[in-house]
Amino acid sequence: MGISLPGDNDFETVPSLHSKALRVNLNRNIYGTFAEIGAGQETVRHFFRAGGASGTIAKAMSAYDKDFSDAVYGAQDDGRYVTESRLRRMLQHETQLIEERISREKHPEKLFFTFANTVATIDFAKKFLGHGWVGIKFQVAPGEEYSEIILHVRFKEREAQLQQNTLGILGTNLIYGAFYKHDQPKKLLKYLYDHIDKDKIEIDLVNFSGPRFEHVDNRLMSLQLLKNEMTEAVMFGPDGYNILSARILYKKNVLALRGSFRPVTKVNMDMYQTSKDMFIKSGKVTEDKLETIFEITLSNLKASGEIDEEDFLHRAELLCSLGQTVMISNFKEYYRLVEYLNNYTKERIGLVMGVNNLVDIFDTKYYTHLSGGILEAFGKLFFKDLRVYLYPMIDKESGELVNSENLKVHPRMKELYKFFKYNGRVIDIEDYDPEVLHIFSREVLRMIEAGEPGWSELLPPGIAELMEEMNLFGCNTKMMAN
Known about the structure:
This protein has 17 helices and 18 strands. The chain has helices at about 15-25, 45-50, 65-75, 85-100, 160-180, 185-190, 220-225, 245-250, 265-280, 310-320, 335-340, 355-360, 375-380, 415-420, 440-450, 465-470, 475-480, and strands at about 30-40, 55-60, 110-120, 130-140, 145-155, 200-210, 235, 240-245, 255-260, 290-295, 300-305, 305, 325-330, 350-355, 385-390, 395, 400, 425-430. The strands form four sheets. An eight-stranded mixed β-sheet has the order 8-7-13-10-9-14-15-18, sandwiched between helices. Strands 2-1-3-4-5-6 form a six-stranded mixed β-sheet, sandwiched between helices. By secondary structure, the chain is of the alpha/beta class. It has three domains: about 15-215, CinA-like (Maf protein); about 245-435, Rossmann fold (3-Layer(aba) Sandwich), CATH 3.40.50; about 440-480, no CATH class.
C-alpha cells in the first residue's frame, strides 16, 4: 500500500491531488462523511472530481448558516463557532450517524471516517486573516476504535478564495495521510504541505490520538511543526497535550522564563517563584489571570547542528512534572517573543532573565538584520507596559553580586540601558535564595556524567528521582547511589 512520496529519497515525486483523492475513492472499504462549515467547503470537491466518489462519500455536509449549524450540532455555550470544541462535536456527531445508519453486518469490511472543518477566512476589511480547525476521525481496520488527528491553521493569503483553495488541498492531504501514512506520523505531518507553499498557511497545533497513535508523543509532533517551519512557536501543558496559544493567552497576563532547562534546577524554580510573586504584587496582575510560560528556543535544542529529540523530551518531561506550561519557539531575540505574545493578549507581559541574558539584549550584533537596529528591537521589546525581572548572579572572578545596578553593558549602550532601568522597566529580584545562586544546569550535567555525588541536591524536589526512574540525561540507578 506504499506510494512514492517526498522524503523517502530525493528522486521520488509528490503525487497529485487527483491521484491522492482517486486512491482513497478506489479503496472500496473507505467510506465516510465530509462536514465543512463556515468558509471552508473545498475539500470534498477534490474527491467528487477525482471519480469513483460514490463508494467513498456517504454525505457531504455544509451547515453554513449558524442557526442551522446549531440545530445539527447544538449551540455553543460561548457563541463561537471556529473552535476546537465545535470541531469535536462535528466529528463525534457525524461518526455516530454513520455508525447508526450503515449496518456492520451488511458491510463488515467498511472503514468509516469523518472529515470536518470549521473556518473563518479573511474579513472584508482585510484586518483579520482568518483561522480554522481541521480534523479527521477514522479507522484503518474494520470495527476498531477510531483514531483522530486535529489541526489548527492560520491563513496568510489575503483573498478568501485563495484561502479556501489552500484549505481544500490541506484537507485532501490530511485524509490521504490518515489512511496511507498513519504509521509514519512525522511524514504525515510533512506531507500536509504537498502542493502548498508554506507562506500560504500556518499549522500551529496538531494532536494525534487513538489506537493508531498510542505511541505518538504530541510534544514531539509539536517539535516537528517547528522543524518543518510550519509555525514559529508551539505550546503544551503539564499533561503533554498540545494547546493553542490564542486560547491559553487570551486576556491573560503573561510571565515568560527562557532557559535551557537541561535539566531544570532550583535556580530556575527560584527565578520563577520570586518573579511571579513580584509580578502579582505589582498591582495590575491577579493569579487567576496569569499564565506562566517556560520557553525553550529551537536553537537551545540543537546539539552539533541537529535537534536531539530525546534530549527535548527529557526537558519536557521534567517541566511537565512540575506542572508547567512549556513553549518551544524559534525566537532567538526576546523582542520576537514579546511580539508573539502581544498577538494574543493586551494585558501586562513580564520577562524573567538572568544578568547574562540582559547584557546580551544590549549587544547590537543581534540586531544588524533590522533596518532600525537596536532601537527598532527595543521599540518592540518594551512595547506598552513590559517589565524585565532580573535575577542576580555571582561573578566567578570577584565573588561580587551582580544585579541591575552594577552590570556592565557596552559603553555605547550605557545611556540606553539607564533609560529603561530608571524608567522602571528593569526590576531586580531581591527576595532570591542566596544558597542556590551557584547552581548551573551545565554543572549538574557534568556531575552526572562524571559520577560525582551531590547533584541531586541541586534540583527541585522529586526531579532527581524522576530522572533516575526514566533514565533522563543519562542518569541511572548507579549514579543515584553515588
